[in-house]
Design brief:
The complex is a heterodimer of chains A (255) and B (246).
Chain A (H helix, E strand, L loop, with lengths): L1 E10 L2 E11 L4 E5 L6 H8 L7 E6 L2 E2 L5 H9 L1 E4 L11 H12 L4 H14 L15 H13 L5 E5 L7 H18 L2 E5 L3 H7 L2 E6 L2 E6 L10 H7 L3 H14 L1
Parallel strand pairs in A: 3-8, 3-9, 6-7, 7-8
Antiparallel strand pairs in A: 1-2, 1-4, 4-5, 9-10
Chain B lengths: L1 H16 L6 H16 L3 H22 L8 H41 L2 H7 L4 H39 L4 H9 L4 H27 L5 H31 L1
Helix pairs in contact in B: 1-6, 2-6, 3-4, 3-6, 4-6, 4-7, 4-8, 4-9, 6-7, 6-8, 8-9
Chain lengths: 255, 246
């Protein structure tokens, strides 16, 4: 479980996160949503330790991240999987080398053992027979799958995804969303996803945290989001023409 | 103030670079790859330029020796001294600053803007140590060989130019390059090479690692890194020359 309490973070005196508190549970897919510039990426990067909080705490399984000993921090890093917005695959390495990279760095497995694990996770993300390809030879969706495979190869306890659907067509986006949800449930991972894709909210949003101007403006489930009166959430959700039409149709039906 | 901040940040970066690699085998693989990228792949340009510059130095010396009192052996002597003292270590380092410096900045800078460095950090890898240390050690290890090659080819180029132009005799040239041989001058050249190799590997790494923005920022960082690397080589050359030869 990840517990965030009163998280503040700013850059050059400009506050970006203004006291966010929330909790993310194992085996659940939690989504951080909000408009561009609302602080989603800074929040996610604070969770994974790329930004140090100015105040507030982030606890992993009850242990505050800033209190980790050197060894605890090392172990915590190994427990984290991250899927970046642009996949962040090492472009000089093949798919196999990319996925094998964490195993090479942090385990003492033989090449055969590592290869077996790599092939297992690549199979899990439906990406067989691509071991020898370089990232530049793959489509956006395939790159995302490799990124997911690399993120889960070490059996992480926590999986973080920054806009995993950006640049993908709606069909591939749903495949990626469902893959993340399946993996989360299968391995009991605490998954936190940054997105502004309402389709993802509908597909996999077991818990949704809405950020506005660096503050948590709303929190709930995908079923609650269409019932809320919170103005900021309503404006965000119904900024899409599709959802506007659905809302109009629902209102007409209820009248 | 801005310059002081950059200098401080550069030395803090070096503090992270010079740490024990997390995985020895992985580090050696990276080191071999960097020796190939930064050293072996620079041999072509160094070979080509050294040979021709050596030729030009000997021709210029021969054409400017107007006094009959000056012996032709001076041509070989002047070529040897010019090549060993300045051309090979300094001029070649400036060429490498352009070729290798832009490669280092653009490769690390692209990793930064495409979040590959963030990916390394999230995995708990010291990205500076992982990316920069193999480059520094590869440059320190291989550039003395590259500069030694430049010295040999520069002197050979001078002899070849004389033979082809007929401006001086080969025997005079060979006698000239054997005159007043001081082993310390080679030591001086190697010391300069090692210092320049360190600058060529670390300054562009700094510019690439701390780049912010997108592809245009990487391009600007590459240009800036080459300029600063050359400026540092030239200034350091002056101080090393004063320190070691006066």
């Amino acid at each position: 479980m990840i517990e965030v309490k009163g998280l503040h973070k700013g850059f050059n005196g400009v506050p970006v996160l203004k006291g966010i508190s929330t909790t993310f549970h194992p085996g659940k897919t939690s989504l951080i949503i909000g408009q561009s510039g609302s602080g989603k990426t800074v929040f996610l990067k604070s969770l994974i330790g790329l930004h140090t909080p100015e105040s507030g705490t982030i606890s992993f399984a009850g242990k505050v991240s800033t209190d980790f000993t050197e060894e605890e921090r090392r172990q915590w890093r190994r427990d984290i999987g991250m899927v970046f917005q642009g996949s962040a695959l090492f472009d000089s390495q093949t798919v196999e080398e990319n996925v094998m990279f964490p195993l090479k760095m942090f385990t003492t497995q033989t090449y055969e053992e590592m290869l077996e694990r790599v092939n297992f996770v690549l199979n899990r993300v439906n990406l067989d027979n691509s071991n020898a390809k370089f990232p530049a030879e793959l489509s956006g969706g395939m790159q995302k799958r490799v990124a997911i495979a690399r993120a889960i190869v070490m059996n992480p306890k926590y999986l973080f995804c920054d806009e995993p659907n950006s640049g993908l067509d709606p069909k591939t986006a749903i495949v990626i969303d469902n893959l993340i949800k399946e993996i989360t449930e299968e391995y009991g991972i605490t998954t936190v996803i940054n997105t502004h894709d309402m389709n993802s909210v509908m597909e996999i949003g077991e818990k949704i945290v809405f950020l506005e101007h660096g503050k948590k403006a709303w929190e709930g489930t995908k079923n609650d989001i269409f019932k809320t009166d919170n103005e900021a959430v309503v404006n965000f959700v119904y900024s899409s023409n599709l959802f506007k039409k659905i809302r109009v149709a629902q209102n007409e039906k209820s009248n | 103030m801005v310059y002081l901040r950059h200098i401080g940040k550069y030395f803090l970066m070096l503090g992270q670079v010079f740490k024990r690699p997390q995985k020895g085998r992985f580090f050696y693989e990276s080191l071999i790859r960097e020796i190939d990228e930064l050293g072996i792949k620079s041999m072509g340009i160094i070979t080509f330029i050294s040979f021709f510059i050596g030729g030009v130095i000997s021709l210029q010396t021969a054409l400017n020796l107007e006094s009959p009192l000056l012996p032709d052996t001076l041509i070989g002597f002047a070529t040897k001294r010019s090549v060993i003292l300045e051309f090979a270590p300094t001029f070649c380092s400036i060429i490498l600053a352009g070729k290798v410096g832009s490669y280092i900045t653009s490769s690390i800078g692209t990793m930064r803007v495409t979040e590959q460095i963030d990916a390394l950090e999230v995995m708990g890898i010291n990205s500076l140590n992982h990316l920069v240390l193999p480059k520094v050690l590869a440059a320190l290890f291989f550039y003395p060989f590259l500069i030694a090659l430049a010295m040999f080819l520069g002197i050979l180029g001078g002899w070849t130019a004389g033979m082809l132009s007929g401006l001086f005799l080969g025997t005079d040239y060979i006698q000239g390059i054997q005159m007043d041989f001081k082993p310390f001058l080679l030591v001086y050249a190697i010391i300069k090479t090692l210092v320049f190799a360190f600058i060529i590997a670390t300054v562009p790494s700094y510019h690439g690692y701390y780049v912010k923005g997108g592809s245009i920022a990487v391009g600007k960082a590459s240009t800036s890194s080459v300029v600063w690397t050359i400026v540092l080589i030239v200034v350091t050359n002056y101080f090393l020359t004063q320190l070691l030869l006066t």
